[in-house]
Amino acid sequence: MKQRTKQTLRLYWSQIRNYKFLLFFMLLALGIATVLEIIIPIYYKQFFDILTSARPSSTIATALMDTLFMILAINAISWIIYRFTTFTSDYFQPHVSADLLQYAYKYLQRHSYNFFTNRFVGSLVRKVTKLSRAFQTFADRAYWHLFTLGIRVIGATIVLYIFNHTVAYILFVWTIIFITINYFFSVWKLKYDTARSAKDTETVAVLADAVTNQVNIQLFNGFSFEFGRFKKVTDELQKLQTLTWNLGSVIEGIQAALFIAVEFLLMYFAIKFWQQGTLTVGDFVLIQSYLLGLINRLWDVGRHIRDIYESFADAEEITEILNTPHEITDAPNAKTLTVKKGEIEFKKVNFSFHQTRRVLEDINLVIKSGEKIALIGPSGAGKTMLMKALFRFHDIDSGDILIDGQSIKKISQESLHDNLSLVPQDPILFHRSLIENIRYGQRKATDKEVLKAAKLAHCDDFIINLPQKYETFVGERGIKLSGGERQRVAIARAILKNSPILILDEATSSLDSHSEALIQDALAKLMKQKTVIVIAHRLSTIRQMDRVIVIKNGQIFEQGTHDELLAKDSLYKHLWQIQAGGFLQEEER
User: Fold this and answer.
1) Band of residue 513 on the pLDDT scale cut at 50, 70, 90
2) How far apart are CA 360 and CA 555, in angstroms?
3) Which fold has domain 3-19+95-322?
4) Which of 50, 197, 277, 328 has the fewest C-beta atoms lying within 10 Å of its C-beta?
5) For the ABC transporter domain, which residue ranges apply (predicted)?
């Protein structure tokens, strides 16, 4: 068994064990019902032995009726037990499936920012949704089919052994051979099922990427190019599907040949024993009942085994991720961050991507309580990375980052994020109502508090003109709103959160003068009595800052007030002089 398959089974058991007593009683009931089904052919044997052993009479008729009523009673009891098992399964499977999805969701969300930037969103979603379906397939095939089949094979062999050793040996040995062939064939086929499952996920990812970038495809006439990419992966998926289906057809052909062989063997020896007088008509009925019952179920056993291994192939994609350690974790006994002042210190901070490309180098910076600083510099200088390090989206290589003297490595990530607010350059909203998006800043906020924050951020100005007002859905990623409207929603969210430390990544795109004025007014309200770090582009914003930090090549190149830096031949002065339209140009001299 492959390591990933073992990991998948361990993952299933981690959730199944919460219902182990329910599973035990369900399997016990299913086992009893199956044993009762095995007993029924014995009464059919008795029925036909009575029928063929004497002339018709009232005594014989009574014996036959008694046998029929016994068969009816056993069937009724078996039916009741099966219904109990069905209802139990209908509770068990959905609950375990939901628990698996919730576990996968929680584990996935705890992965780092870097983890998500290196993977297709559509691919991750597909892998998670496959997990639930994969478990249901596994559970259904495991206990409804393979578990009951095992009981039927053992039970039928024992009963036949009592009446005829040779017939029992033939049936048992043939069954073992049949199941072994199916098992090893399914294990061999698993590598193709895994490849097919991976290609299926890739196809969904390519499709999701194209749908997400539909506007870009139109703007750059990329339809033919993108269709070519999609056609390539779907053609590869088609080839793998055809291969796996053809392999399934091959094993079904082998199964049919094995069924013909066992039918001939059993009937041949049955006739021989009948000639010798050691086998009755009732024995024929018993053998044929077991044989037909097993054939009906064994015909599908190969498919059930293949279904289980295909479900493993589907589940193993997300199992791999769920067994990938989190890059960024809380320290043992991590403390809760307590912010009284809001002072931030970057102490000899160094960071490289994959230990190759240096992004931050020996950053030493103290931001005092209530101080407002602007980070500026050429594109790729390390401004955004500095903010990601503060949020602990990445762990730095060396040095430390302190908030009120507390190292962010020693505090919980949850408490860290509780005390930081971010207004990003291009806010992404949930495909939910406006009021839900704003309330996300403080999910326990009342409607009154949400409306107050919206008005302070000038969201109310455009929301009241929408048909459904605050209940308007904003579309995926907030696409139904303009850039300025999304930014105001993000500001309202930050106002509602009211964290002591604010980080603002200003949008570089130009807004109309009215939107610019509204956003500047909203930001002024938001920044009151807070420690503020702004990745600044607008001159109007920079002028409001207490200090300007110029970053170049991952280092603090220069710092000072706006006037101090303009008074000398500085990189800041150069950027200022070549500014246009109220924005600093991100150029290197």
Assistant:
1) low
2) 6
3) ABC transporter transmembrane region fold (1.20.1560)
4) 277
5) 344-578
| CA-to-CA separations, 503 to 113, 145, 277, 296, in angstroms, rounded | 17, 58, 94, 67
Count of positions (residues) in the chain: 589
| Residue found by looking up tokens 């003297």 in the block | 405
pLDDT value at residue 192:
82
Write the CB contacts of 496 (distance below 8 Å, at least 6 apart in sequence): 438, 439, 441, 442, 445, 449, 450, 453
From CA 20, how far away is CA 128, in angstroms rounded? 24
* Helix ranges (DSSP H) in 164-300: 165-212, 214-219, 223-275, 281-298
**Is 247:220 a contact under the CB 8 Å cutoff?**
no
| Mean of per-residue pLDDT scores for the chain | 81
HEC string of 52-74 equals HHCCCCHHHHHHHHHHHHHHHHH
Place of tokens 């698993």: 190
Q: Which residues pair with 346 in a beta bridge?
A: 365, 401
pLDDT tens profile 337-382: 888 888 999 988 888 876 667 788 888 989 998 899 988 877 777 8
Mapped onto helix, strand or coil, the DSSP state of residue 138 is helix
Q: Which of 53-57, 237-241, 568-572 has the lowest mean pLDDT?
A: 53-57
Measure the CA–CA gap between 225 and 231, rounded to whole angstroms: 10
What pLDDT band is residue 581 in, cutting at 50, 70 and 90?
A: very low
Residue 490 or residue 482, greater confidence: 490
pTM for the full predicted model? 0.72
Give the pair of three-digit tokens for residue 212. Answer: 């997400």
Decide: 236 and 199 in contact? Cβ < 8 Å: yes
